[in-house]
């Protein structure tokens, strides 16, 4: 008996070419099938859930109207691109999403010709798409359409506004889709408002408009300046009629919307009508994050990446964590509140990650002293610098990978003035399934050269608490604390808050044969290995450096004088990191030990579980064991 297909439409779609064979009335059913498929798949194979449910109709309409992959779709915050992946040849392997050696967690040109640009973080779509639009004009590809899809908070990033500003001032035919999922559709999306949208996006209206412009240009009545002024006037009139303002009315960008982002047939109609228009344009859609799955619609933040769940009842499947060590982020959150209750200068700052970094704990208890500034890492740092300049003590929590966007701000707006800003870098090191755009691999190497910074990394949760306490004491200046995603090693983590002398490391295990120097929680793996090896008769020493800057020179002199063999281990790039600092110190002080550095190699590390990636990088306990044994034998 022939096996019955689960989905009458989706099972027959292997590419957008197949999608475009459907008639317009079939698109609603296809959207329903896609939504069901995503719910079923992500219930057992966790990923970014709510965002993808919110763009089902938009994604279908885009691939239906545009000739992808020749026409370019540039996604922002790539976790909303699951439907895009399913429709572009990856439906049958979507179950491998985010798994080691499976399909990538975010769009990547290395994986598919339909993925036009890397988009692991946010706010880069307009700039990248504008570059593609200009490239198409330069190459004479005037029939190629370029679409930037921005939303899910990414319009709050500064790069988005830089792209908008440039798009308004150079020749291009870019279409920007604003996926606005922060508000519901107004009840009055109909009547005069809908009439206005229908009129301004209709082909007859725009043909008349275009012909009139041509005649006025020939008569020397309409030039570029006057055309831009008319666009601004038109946008202003639309804002009055729509009873809401938008930033685009002051730019030379034609604005359409807002329209219902879940009416697939209307989205397709509007896209068809505006895609041939000359000049930059923006279509504003209102969508509901988590659309079609009631628990996700009600609690979009929880269902952003909910883990496993029951697709029928919506019950999340949560593992029993009683007795386990806490997550580093939760220790941060509780300790920050504890410190803030005693120090009224402390302020919390995070760029759109209050639950991800557990600053929501302070926000709940002290909402007036904790700020979510949106996806704007550079602003978060400079904002913190401004508060610190006038007497406050900001704890600015940014994921390690995302702090890269604020490098200039750290130097110019914090370090030069030695301002007391505490930069807490969550997700440092290898983060797992989110892959190369999210690994916190580079912070140690790129922060180390900056003057006036204190750079630290706790080996466990108790050390994290003590470092946070130390950082908020008087006259400590800019202070960096980096720690990983996931759980620590101390179920009983709530220790007394004590000052740690800046620039001091610790001897964890005494030894004479070989010295192992670690920085951060990876020291726990080294400790497990060394304890086993020493029980077999070896005498290996272990040192927790604790501070990358300033280095513990007394400790390093002691190591340089007593050991001929040194291994350094860090959860960061080998080039320029802690191991490099040790090499420099030994060379500068005329010590000549054999030094072997272990860390993240000089390549972008793929996605997979943290344990799998540690093996790839040679940082798992088996690799540490083998390396130590080999160096002992040398």
From TrEMBL:
- Stretches assigned to the Transketolase-like pyrimidine-binding domain: 326-491
Name the reaction it catalyses.
D-glyceraldehyde 3-phosphate + pyruvate + H(+) = 1-deoxy-D-xylulose 5-phosphate + CO2
Q: Does the keyword ATP-binding apply?
A: no
Q: Which GO terms describe its cellular component?
A: cytosol
For this chain's UniProt record, which GO biological process terms are given?
isopentenyl diphosphate biosynthetic process, methylerythritol 4-phosphate pathway; terpenoid biosynthetic process; thiamine biosynthetic process
Classification via InterPro entries: Dxylulose-5-P_synthase, THDP-binding, Transketo_C/PFOR_II, Transketolase-like_Pyr-bd, Transketolase_BS, Transketolase_C
Instruction: State one molecular function term (GO).
Output: magnesium ion binding
Q: Which domain of life is it from?
A: Bacteria
Regions crossing the membrane: none
Name the positions where thiamine diphosphate binds: 79, 120-122, 153-154, 181, 293, 377
The record, for SUPFAM superfamilies, names: Thiamin diphosphate-binding fold (THDP-binding), TK C-terminal domain-like
User: What CDD domains does its record include?
Assistant: TPP_DXS, TPP_PYR_DXS_TK_like
| Uppermost EC category | transferase
- Cofactors, names only: thiamine diphosphate; Mg(2+)
Q: Which NCBIfam families does the entry mention?
A: dxs (TIGR00204), PRK05444.2-2 (NF003933)
What is its biological role? Catalyzes the acyloin condensation reaction between C atoms 2 and 3 of pyruvate and glyceraldehyde 3-phosphate to yield 1-deoxy-D-xylulose-5-phosphate (DXP).
Q: Which family does it belong to?
A: Belongs to the transketolase family. DXPS subfamily.
Q: What's the name of the protein?
A: 1-deoxy-D-xylulose-5-phosphate synthase
Q: Which organism is it from?
A: Bacteroides coprosuis DSM 18011
- The gene that this protein is the product of is dxs
